[in-house]
Design goal:
By secondary structure, the chain is of the alpha/beta class. Helices cover about 50% and strands about 10% of the residues. Helix 4 (about 120-135) links the parallel strand 4 (about 110-115) and strand 5 (about 135-140). The longest helix has 23 residues, at about 400-425. It starts with about 20 loop residues before the first strand and ends with a helix. The model is unreliable at about 1-20 and about 50-55 (pLDDT under 50).
Length: about 425
C-alpha cells in the first residue's frame, strides 16, 4: 500500500514552518451574493496562548510590536495561498502609519484596515497616499463621521461600519451619506442571517461576521427529502460496523459522488503510484476511515449549493481538531475530525443541530461536545472555535500552546484549500 499522502497518517504538524511568533486567523468578507472578496487577517504577537499586546500609553512600543508582528507574519506565511486570489487585509494602527515603517508587500491583492486613533489626519494622510500609489486597497475601519472623515474618504476604497449599537435608521443614513463618495461600504459584526438580510436591504456592498455559521434555522415537522437522504448516507458512514461492500454501495447510490471521489483519490494530493479504478480498490489502498471521511465531505460539499466559504470553514475546523490530537490514537483523531465537521452541520443543512444529531449514530460524548462544549471533545471544539474567531484571550488556559494552535490553524487552512479545490474542480 502506498501511504505517502494518506491523510490518516499525515496528521503531524509540519516541522519546517516557524509560526509560533504570532497568533493569526482570517475572517472572510463577502459581497451580497456571498462570494468571498477578501479576508481580514487577524494577528498578534505572543509569548504564550494569551498573547502580548503593547499599550496605547507607549506609542513607540506599539509601533515596534506591530512592525515585528507584521514582518514575522509576512515572512512566515505563504500570502498567495492564504489569500486565494482574494484581497488580504492587514490591520494597521494610525500610530504605525505615522511612524513611516515600510511595508514588505504591495499590490492590489493587499489591503490595509486603518484603525481609529488619536493621530491628526494631517499626519496620517501622506502614509495613506503612499499606500494608494503602491496599489494597496485602503479600508477605514470602524468608520464614524468627524471633522476629518471626508479627507479620509478621499483616499479610501472601503468604509467599514460596525452595526452593533446602531439603529436601522442610523445605518441607513450613514450608508446614504457614504454613497456620495467613491467608496464601497462594508458592514461588520454581522452575527446572524437576519442582520445580513437587513444590511443588504440598507445598501451595504460588503459583509463581515460569523453569520454564515449561524444561518436562519426553521423548525420543521419533517426534514426535506434531499436532506433526509443525505443524513441517511452520513448515518451509514458513521456506523462503526460498516463494511467495505456497504461503503461501496453507499457511494454507488450517487454516481456523481462516485465519480468525484475517484477523481479526488487519483489527484496529486494522495500521490499514489497506481491508478485507483473502483471504490473497492480505493478502500483497499486508503482504508475504510479515509474513504468514509471523504465520502462525508463530498456529500456535504454538494448539498444545496451552500456558499463555498462555509465548506472551507468546515474543513478548516475539522482538520484543526484532528491536528490538535495528532499525538493521540487514530480513533481519537477520527472522532475529533468528526466533531469539528459536524459542528457546522446545521449551517450546511440549515437545520438545528438538536434536530439533526438524534438521526446519527453518535456517542453521547460527541453529542454533548457538539451541543454544549462538554467533555474533552467539547473543550477541544470550543478552543478551535474561539481561535478561529480571534478570541485568543478566551482560549482555555493550558490546553494548547500558542505555537501549536497557530501551526495547526495554518496547516488546516492550507489543507482545506487543497481539499476544497479537489472537491470543486471542473471536469478536465
Amino acid at each position: 500500500m502506498n501511504e505517502s499522502r494518506n491523510p490518516d497518517r499525515d496528521t503531524e504538524v509540519a516541522p519546517d514552518r516557524q509560526t509560533g511568533r504570532a497568533l493569526f486567523a482570517r475572517q472572510p468578507i463577502y459581497d451580497h451574493t456571498l462570494r468571498t472578496i477578501g479576508y481580514e487577517l487577524l494577528f498578534r504577537e505572543t509569548g504564550d496562548h494569551r498573547g502580548m499586546t503593547a499599550t496605547a500609553s507607549d506609542p513607540q512600543a506599539a509601533r515596534v510590536a506591530t512592525a515585528r508582528v507584521m514582518i514575522n507574519t509576512v515572512l512566515d506565511l505563504d500570502l498567495t495561498r492564504l489569500a486565494e486570489d482574494k484581497i488580504l487585509f492587514f490591520n494597521l494602527s494610525r500610530d504605525f502609519l505615522v511612524a513611516g515603517i515600510e511595508l514588505p508587500f504591495q499590490g492590489s491583492r493587499i489591503g490595509v484596515d486603518v484603525l481609529p486613533g488619536p493621530q491628526p489626519i494631517a499626519e496620517v494622510l501622506p502614509a495613506l497616499e503612499a499606500l494608494a500609489l503602491d496599489g494597496i486597497v485602503i479600508a477605514i475601519d470602524d468608520f464614524a463621521w468627524d471633522e476629518d472623515a471626508e479627507k479620509l474618504l478621499e483616499v479610501a476604497n472601503i468604509a467599514k461600519v460596525g452595526i452593533t449599537d446602531r439603529s436601522e435608521n442610523e445605518l441607513r443614513e450613514l450608508v446614504r451619506d457614504l454613497k456620495a463618495f467613491n467608496v464601497k461600504t462594508a458592514a461588520k459584526f454581522i452575527e446572524h442571517s437576519e442582520q445580513f438580510e437587513l444590511c443588504k436591504d440598507i445598501g451595504f456592498d460588503y459583509f463581515q461576521g460569523f453569520f454564515l455559521s449561524k444561518p436562519k434555522l426553521v423548525k420543521a415537522t419533517h426534514i426535506p427529502a434531499s436532506r433526509a437522504n443525505l443524513l441517511r448516507l452520513i448515518a451509514k458512514l458513521e456506523d462503526p460496523s460498516v463494511s467495505p461492500d456497504q461503503l461501496e454501495d453507499i457511494i454507488r447510490f450517487d454516481m456523481a459522488l462516485h465519480y468525484r471521489l475517484l477523481r479526488t483519490v487519483n489527484s496529486a494530493y494522495y500521490g499514489l503510484s497506481i491508478k485507483i479504478r473502483s471504490i473497492s480498490h480505493a478502500v483497499v489502498y486508503l482504508g475504510i476511515p479515509t474513504v468514509k471521511r471523504w465520502t462525508q465531505l463530498q456529500m456535504l460539499a454538494s448539498s444545496d449549493e451552500q456558499p463555498g466559504e462555509i465548506i472551507k470553514q468546515t474543513l478548516i475546523r475539522a482538520r484543526m481538531c484532528e491536528l490538535l490530537t495528532a499525538n493521540l490514537s487514530r480513533e481519537t483523531r477520527h472522532i475529533a475530525f468528526t466533531v469539528g465537521m459536524f459542528s457546522m452541520l446545521d449551517a450546511i443543512l440549515g437545520l438545528p443541530l438538536d434536530e439533526l444529531l438524534p438521526k446519527l449514530p453518535l456517542e453521547n460524548d460527541v453529542v454533548n461536545a457538539l451541543l454544549q462544549y462538554e467533555g474533552p471533545y467539547g473543550r477541544l471544539l470550543e478552543t478551535v472555535v474561539r481561535y478561529e474567531h480571534g478570541q485568543w484571550d478566551e482560549v482555555a488556559e493550558g490546553l494548547y500552546s500558542a505555537e501549536n494552535l497557530s501551526q495547526a490553524y495554518m496547516d488546516a487552512l492550507f489543507w482545506a484549500n487543497d481539499q476544497y479545490a479537489a472537491l470543486t474542480e471542473e471536469d478536465s
